[in-house]
Amino acid sequence: MNKPLILVVEDDTPVRNLITMTLKTHEYRYLSAQNGASAVMEALSHNPDIVLLDLGLPDMDGVEVIQKIRSWSNMPIIVISARTEDSDKIGALDAGADDYLTKPFSVDELLARLRVTQRRLSMMKTDSVQDSPIFTNGALKIDYAAGCAYLDGTELHLTPIEYKLLCLLSKNVGKVLTHTYITQQIWGSSWENDIASLRVFMATLRKKLERGKDGQQYIQTHIGIGYRMLRIE
After folding, report:
1. d(Cα 9, Cα 11) in Å, to the nearest integer?
2. Long-range contact set of residues 161-169: C-beta below 8 Å, sequence gap at least 24
3. Which of 16, 44, 58, 217 sees the fewest Cβ atoms within 10 Å?
4. Lowest mean pLDDT segment, chosen from 60-74, 106-120, 179-193, 194-208
5. What 8-state DSSP symbol labels residue 61?
6. First and final C-alpha spacing in the chain
């Protein structure tokens, strides 16, 4: 099977060369763009599998590029940016980015993020959770049709909110979901008290999921940003 086609959007020549050389060395196919306008055009013309996107582009902010791509496509977007503030990360993720890698980054970390995204792409194509009534991840099993979840074959006793959270995370496995996105999906708003409630429900849900035989961690906290369900191999 061909490696995924990756669009690299980066105006800094040394960084762009580092990324493209890394992709070439590991036999990835790639395209490159140096500004937002050409990034949108390349995405429209070639429909890449994954986008690696810098936020600080000369003609438009990377968040605007994300919004434009999201108007027609769900292609995975991994932000690679020197911006380290939580507000920047949250803004990019809320706009539709799937992951956020902070500069300076290691080549190994970049490749690891790409592998995670590839697995998510593969899962979406072959066993999309939206099309399947059953979701499985390690010892976790969710029967969407029956409204039940199981761990090691034993039914989990979840509150309605905990079950909704679990389903939301499972349908976006491997993707960071921001506090704002989750609270809007669960409660229809994102007031401060909703976010405080979210932390409480997520803590109780995590405890129930970690009672499995292997003590596996299913939910990863991104402090100040949100949560991600990990894909268990």
Report:
1. 7
2. 161/186, 161/201, 162/201, 162/204, 162/205, 162/208, 165/198, 165/201, 165/202, 165/205, 166/142, 166/205, 167/142, 169/219, 169/227, 169/228, 169/229
3. 58
4. 179-193
5. B
6. 20
Contacts of 164 (CB under 8 A, 6+ apart): 186
Tell me which residue has tokens 């761990």: 151
Angle at 99 between CA 19 and CA 91, to 5 degrees: 115
Q: Which domains does the chain have, with CATH numbers?
A: 5-126 (3.40.50.2300), 128-229 (1.10.10.10)
- For the chain, the maximum distance between any two Cα atoms, rounded to a whole number of angstroms, is 54
Q: For residue range 154-167, what is the model confidence (pLDDT) as tens digits? A: 999 988 889 999 99
| Cα dihedral 159→161→162→165 (10° resolution) | 160
Q: Are 205 and 166 in contact (CB under 8 A)?
A: yes
Map residue 132 onto helix, strand or coil. coil
pLDDT value, residue 52: 97
Quick one: pLDDT band at residue 193, thresholds 50, 70, 90?
A: low
CA distances from 223 to 12, 178, 220 (A): 29, 10, 9
Q: Please answer whether residues 28 and 4 qualify as being in contact, where contact means their C-beta atoms are separated by less than 8 angstroms.
A: yes
Q: Which amino acid is at 2?
A: N
Q: Do β-strands 140-143 and 148-151 pair in parallel, antiparallel, or remain unpaired? A: antiparallel
Q: For 173, which DSSP code?
A: T
Nearest to 11 by CA among 46, 53, 68: 53
- Kindly tell me the number of DSSP H helices and DSSP E strands found in the chain: 8, 12
